[in-house]
Amino acid sequence: MTAPATPAAANPAPLSAPVATVQPLAIGGVLVDPPVLQAPMAGYTNYAFRQVVREFGGAGLLATEMIAARSASWLETNRGEHPDRLWGVREEPRPLAVQMWDNDPANLAEVGRRLAHDFRVSVVDINFGCPVRQVTEKAHSGSWLLRDPARVGEIVRRVVDACGDTPVTAKIRLGCSEACQTAIEVAQRVEEAGAACLTVHGRVAAQYFKGEANWEAISAVKKSVSRLPVVGNGDITTAEAAVERLRTTGVDGVMIARECLGKPWIFAQTAALLRGQPKPADPTPAEQKELVLHHYDLVCQRFGGERGTLLMRKFACSYAQGIPGAREFRGHVSRVTTAGEFLEVVHRFFPQAGVK
Ligand SMILES: Cc1cc2nc3c(=O)[nH]c(=O)nc-3n(C[C@H](O)[C@H](O)[C@H](O)COP(=O)(O)O)c2cc1C
Hints:
Blueprint: E1 25-27, E2 30-32, E3 36-38, H1 47-56, E4 62-68, H2 73-77, H3 82-85, E5 96-101, H4 105-117, E6 123-128, H5 149-163, E7 168-175, H6 183-192, E8 197-204, H7 215-224, E9 230-233, H8 239-248, E10 253-256, H9 258-262, H10 266-274, H11 285-319, H12 326-333, H13 339-349
Parallel strand pairs: 3-10, 4-5, 5-6, 6-7, 7-8, 8-9, 9-10
Antiparallel strand pairs: 1-2
Flavin mononucleotide binds at residues 3-4, 6, 39-44, 65-66, 99, 127, 129-130, 171, 201, 233-236, 256-259.
């Protein structure tokens, strides 16, 4: 699966002065500084990807892929897909948010409790935004729950109670469909239930990734709550745009998803602009090649060469932005099955160090 592309956005005017008005974001006792968050993305934001983001720096909070809270049994048996989805979570640096999904308050409370007290994650996040049928129609979870703000509130309250001092956050879309835009009511329930932050993706679920994110609607959600910090999300494609959204929309933070898959350095660029420093240049194609090989190494350490190669295909496609012959590279790399094939394609398309 390749992630849907972020729509090309008009870049705001270059910034010249320090952005003095942007404050760090407090999510309970966790300081998110700068208030620029790496979004959870299923199939992508595993430990290897997070490690790459961390090495570039600049993201105030990193998030895992979402995990299913259907039953807590996988935490005991350490079998199934979830050990992979929790890869690195116990040991890696903080702050780190782990996201979970389900529609059952008891399941979510139990898994939240384990994440908070046993895994000692910084933030427990609950998904109320996923538009995928397997999660919505089949499991009545994710964005399906936006049609029932009271249930969202009940879920958040149960998880907050279970997590003690660990802050609990929620991530939503504007609603299920154009006709069912419940974000404001949901935000108020989430606030009353004791959540420490709310992230709003400015689309309804029925849109998936079509159209443009509606940042006016995100601002309206922010205005509708009294103390709950709100993070805005949707279609941020440059560091300048991230800063502009922070300055002009009233949100307390911004979250970046698709664009950081090919540009994990976007957080470092945004952080520099927020400090009033010049924006660091994008890596050269030769540096991008080093990045691909480093990411591949991290993936293979965990999954071995065979599975690691298959998993790495989609990341390599994302990293190919801007290299000569990117399209052809993607065509080749998305069919490789062995480490030898993968490395051959990378060496063929990415320039050597020292070559521009
Ligand atoms: C491949 C992919 C996987 C995603 N998985 C999740 C997920 O597990 N949890 C979640 O809350 N959002 C998920 N999202 C949504 C993103 O977090 C984000 O809300 C959305 O992509 C809009 O932000 P963007 O325009 O910066 O990409 C996913 C998005 C993509 C493209």
